[in-house]
Each structure stands twice: as structure tokens, then as C-alpha cells.
Design a protein that fits this description.
The longest helix is centred in the middle third of the chain and has 16 residues. Helices cover about 50% and strands about 10% of the residues. The chain is globular. The protein starts with a strand and ends with a helix. The chain is built from ten helices and six strands, in the order E-H-H-H-H-H-E-H-E-H-E-H-E-H-E-H.
């Protein structure tokens, strides 16, 4: 294999959470007086850490979100996860193959550690992602598109950035990987190939079955 570490984004790459979480987010922002459609939520917030939501709302409206915004949002999202969340088709098989072949891998997610754990438990992916393989934007000062999270994950896993590849589905995540000096494979299930290419994706794939071939 051409890489020493595979870093997976979580939401939309391992767990099919983006439709659920963005439906909840759009509804909650609208409820708070910031009308937001599902499509706008995907466009503006997909792949970002929570602080970006606060920053964009403040920038656009001059208003702060409620102090309990994160807690209420997460409680609604976690309830949706428990009811409906599924793994991304083919993701489990990819991780199983990497584990069987002894290829190092981990998660580098904008989501909180709790969000990652809840999603992995709900989908049965937790067995392949113990704590030492899970890295969150909570662990660093800046979330994506800053490179901090991916650089932190590589450092903790003991691998040089240039020997890492990131699997991402959002332009923010692709930009973060590029800034970290890593190759990045863009998953086009929810984001257009054009947007991921513009962000700097090394290669693109539309189905998880293609990913193992790309990893070589």
C-alpha cells in the first residue's frame, strides 16, 4: 500500500449522518429565527465544527446563538442517530479489509467525541475504532479547514503527514487535508466532484468499493 495511515472523516464517510444532522440543524436554526433550508445547511455547515455555525450566524445576523445551542442540537441529533443512523454503504467492508491487512487507520472528525461514539455504537462501527483511533476537533484549537486536526491525528499515530491519505466528503475537509500536506480522496456521495476538485482533492470516488482500489 502506498500510504502508512488512512485518516477517515466520519460524518458522511463512515456513518450516513449528514442527511439526519443537517435536517435537524436546518430545523433548529429556523426555529430560532434564522431561516435555513436543508440545502443551505449542507452548503454552509457540512464538515465543519460547531464553532463555525456560531461564527457564521453572528457574521450574517449580528446575533448570538443561545448558550445551550450545542447541547440542544446534539441531543436532537443523537436521538435521530439512535432511531435511524446507518453506516455508509461499503464503509464497514473497507475498514474490515484495512484491519485484516494490518493497515493503520483512524478517524479525524469535526464532530465531538461524544457524537463520534454515539454514531459508531448505533452503526456497529465501534469495534473497529477504539479511543486511540478517534480524533476530534475538540482535541485541537481550530477545526477544518485548518490542518490542525489531521496533523494531530498523524502525530498521535506516529506517521509523517506526507505518508497519510485522508478520505473526505466536504470541501472544508479536503482543504484541511491539503493544508496538512496530505493526499486526499474525495467521496462524491453528497458533494459534487467539481467542488471537491476545486478544494484540491487528489482523486475522487463515488462508491466505497472504489476506495480500496485507490488506496492500492
Amino acid at each position: 500500500m502506498r500510504y502508512d495511515l488512512v485518516i477517515f472523516d466520519n460524518d458522511g464517510v463512515l456513518v450516513d449522518s449528514e442527511p439526519l444532522s443537517n435536517t435537524v440543524l436546518a430545523g433548529y436554526l429556523t426555529e430560532l429565527g434564522h431561516p435555513t433550508s436543508y440545502e443551505e445547511s449542507i452548503r454552509d455547515y457540512m464538515g465543519s465544527a460547531m464553532h463555525r455555525i456560531h461564527e457564521l450566524v453572528m457574521e450574517r445576523t449580528g446575533q448570538r446563538l443561545p448558550e445551550d445551542f450545542d447541547d440542544v442540537f446534539h441531543s436532537r441529533v443523537f436521538a435521530a442517530f439512535e432511531r435511524e443512523l446507518k453506516p455508509v454503504p461499503g464503509a464497514r467492508e473497507v475498514v474490515e479489509k484495512l484491519a485484516a491487512d494490518g493497515v493503520p487507520y483512524c478517524v479525524g472528525s469535526s464532530g465531538s467525541h461524544e457524537r463520534i461514539r454515539v454514531g459508531h455504537r448505533a452503526t456497529g462501527l465501534d469495534r473497529w475504532f477504539p479511543a486511540g483511533r478517534v480524533f476530534s476537533s475538540q482535541d485541537v484549537g481550530r477545526g477544518k479547514p485548518a490542518p490542525d486536526l489531521f496533523l494531530y491525528a498523524a502525530r498521535e499515530m506516529g506517521v509523517a503527514p506526507e505518508r497519510c491519505v485522508v478520505v473526505e466528503d466536504s470541501p472544508l475537509g479536503v482543504r484541511a487535508a491539503v493544508a496538512a500536506g496530505m493526499d486526499v480522496y474525495g467521496f462524491t456521495a453528497m458533494t459534487s466532484a467539481e467542488k471537491l476538485t476545486e478544494a484540491g482533492a487528489t482523486a475522487l470516488f463515488a462508491d466505497m468499493a472504489e476506495l480500496l482500489e485507490l488506496l492500492g
